[in-house]
Design goal:
Elements (H helix, E strand, L loop, with lengths): L20 H23 L2 H30 L20 H22 L20 H8 L7 H14 L6 H18 L7 H33 L4 H7 L7 H19 L7 H8 L2 H27 L3 H23 L5 H22 L4 H23 L2 E4 L5 E4 L9 H4 L1 H15 L5 H15 L3 H26 L7 E3 L5 H18 L2 H7 L8
Antiparallel strand pairs: 1-2, 1-3
């Protein structure tokens, strides 16, 4: 005899959640396009697959950007006050910081997808025919002979972008971790897909994965300590509860440091920077540019939210630690960059130095901190994508004139200004921006961040940053002298491509100059960027 167990219906105890789906539309567009991209890989004919993926990715990014702009106008009311979402899930905060970070990420992603899509006039892309093939194997020879072109890189890029867009909006430790992994896992895969120097690419991916796993472990341990002490996973609740607890300050500080280590790893801050040069060098150059720009924006925006909410009540205990990390980051990026002979490693150490500069703005804890940091990241990210797009177009050629791999040795860039004035001039603009020379976005970004640092009382760090900026300018100007005032290297050529990368370079160069000359409207717009507590 069988007994059926039934559960009586609960009446009047369940209520539908009030979710403002409009706030999630930008992320849903990107992730939805990524899912469609996976279906395209599975069912679309090979001849049209690449065109569909490029069009789908670019349209999705532009559509998401339009929605972000609309949401910005929605939460910024007519009287100048800010009205954040109230009915959305407690793990997601749609405020001006979230929308500013998402807009910057989408602009960078649009440029990066153009670079990723670019191929030479002979159809030579940056990615392996079959990334799963063992380097040097007969399988790889067959894949090359059949001219395979893998396009799953586009949905992977969109999945990573979706994680980046959620990352600065997350107000829960669990949501933060999920967004971190959604952002990171596709990057681990994409780092291993280089067409040439395959073993170096796979080694870079493995290093990134292993070190990323350690950083995630620190993040989880720090989150576990914060949850254990406060009894909540919500960042805003932790910020309210933690200062009121007596006798457990050291546990809270250790927990905060654990989460900070996970975030500092992603921005490449010393001493958590060890992965940066190897991964930048080994990854496909378009992916390096995307990773160097977009990951920094997402991680720093999240760091702004976390530091200005959870860490701020304990700033007297944390300031000297984060200040020491900022100083060490600037010094490592500056002096290690002086001895580099590979341009991708040079740009990697440059990015490390820039991470130290941005940390000064976060430490300052000024009213304008979030907006200043966002402007810095906007200018830096656009210039970075453009610089790596140029690196992808500068190649070796053998004695028969056959174009081979990228000419990443700095010495081979000699005389590039005579061979390709457009590329050399654009590269000069990006290098001047990195150096913080006036009339570029880099100058304005450094000015506003350093001004916040002085206002926050970190004059010593700002002086160190100015000294490091002057020293880093040496290796930027050294490269410019090499390009314009040295006899050309006959084995180096600037290849012709389908044009996607050139469009990205031109847009990046023009934007870098415009942000340096007419920065005030953007600065006024970003002055509305604040971190809100619900």
């Amino acid at each position: 005899m069988t007994t059926l167990l039934t559960t009586p219906m609960l009446e009047g105890t369940l209520t539908a959640p009030d979710v403002q789906w409009a706030a999630l539309v930008p992320v849903m567009i990107v992730l939805g396009a990524a899912v469609i991209g996976v279906l395209v890989e599975a069912f679309a004919p090979a001849k049209v697959r690449r065109a569909i993926q490029i069009l789908l990715s670019l349209v999705a990014v532009l559509a998401s950007l339009v929605v972000v702009v609309w949401r910005w106008t929605t939460i910024n009311t007519a009287d100048g006050s800010i009205s954040p979402n109230q009915g959305i899930l407690p793990e997601y905060m749609e405020d001006t910081l979230t929308l500013a970070a998402q807009a910057i990420l989408l602009v960078i992603a649009f440029l990066a997808i153009l670079v990723i899509a670019d191929r030479t006039e002979i159809g030579d892309g940056a990615f392996a025919a079959q990334p799963a093939d063992r380097p040097g194997s007969s399988d790889e020879d067959i894949s090359i002979a059949k001219a395979y072109q893998r396009t799953e890189i586009f949905p992977l890029t969109l999945f990573s972008l979706g994680g980046m867009m959620v990352f600065p909006a997350a107000t829960s430790l669990i949501a933060l971790f999920v967004a971190l992994e959604v952002m990171s896992l596709p990057l681990y895969i994409m780092a291993a897909t280089a067409r040439r120097r395959r073993q170096l690419s796979q080694e870079a991916a493995l290093k990134y994965f292993v070190l990323g796993a350690f950083a995630s472990a620190f993040f989880l341990m720090g989150g576990a300590l914060l949850y254990g002490v406060t009894g909540t996973l919500n960042l805003n609740e932790i910020a309210r509860t933690a200062p009121q607890l007596a006798g457990v300050d050291w546990i809270i500080i250790v927990g905060i440091l654990g989460v900070l280590i996970g975030l500092l790893f992603k921005v490449g801050a010393a001493p958590f920077h060890a992965w940066t040069p190897d991964v930048y060098q080994g990854s496909p150059t378009p992916i390096t540019g995307y990773m160097a720009a977009a990951v920094k924006v997402a991680a720093f925006a999240t760091l702004v939210r976390f530091y200005l909410t959870v860490a701020q009540p304990f700033q007297w205990d944390l300031a000297w630690i984060v200040g020491a990390i900022a100083a060490l980051t600037m010094l490592v990026g500056t002096f290690a960059g002086l001895v580099q002979k590979d341009i991708k490693r040079l740009l990697a150490y440059s990015s490390i130095a820039h991470a130290g500069f941005v940390l000064i703005g976060i430490l300052a804890l000024q009213e304008s901190t979030a907006g200043s940091v966002m402007f810095y990241l906007l200018g830096y990210g656009i210039a970075t994508v453009g610089a790596f797009a140029i690196v992808a177009l500068v190649r070796h050629s053998d004695t028969q004139g056959n174009v081979t791999g990228e000419a990443t040795e700095i010495a081979r860039w000699a005389g590039l200004g005579r061979k390709s004035p457009l590329l050399a001039t654009a590269m000069m603009i990006f290098l001047l921006s990195f150096a913080g020379i006036p009339l570029t976005s880099g100058f304005i970004g450094k000015f506003v961040v350093f001004a916040d640092g002085i206002a926050g009382g970190y004059v010593g760090l700002v002086i160190l940053a100015l000294a490091c900026s002057a020293i880093t300018a040496f290796y930027y100007f050294r490269l410019m002298v090499l390009m314009f005032f040295t006899e050309p290297d006959e084995s180096t050529v600037a290849i012709k491509s389908e044009g996607y990368g050139v469009i990205a370079i031109i847009l990046s160069a023009v934007t870098t100059i415009v942000l340096g000359i007419a920065a005030q409207p953007v600065l006024e717009l970003l002055s509305n960027v604040v971190v809100l507590l619900p």
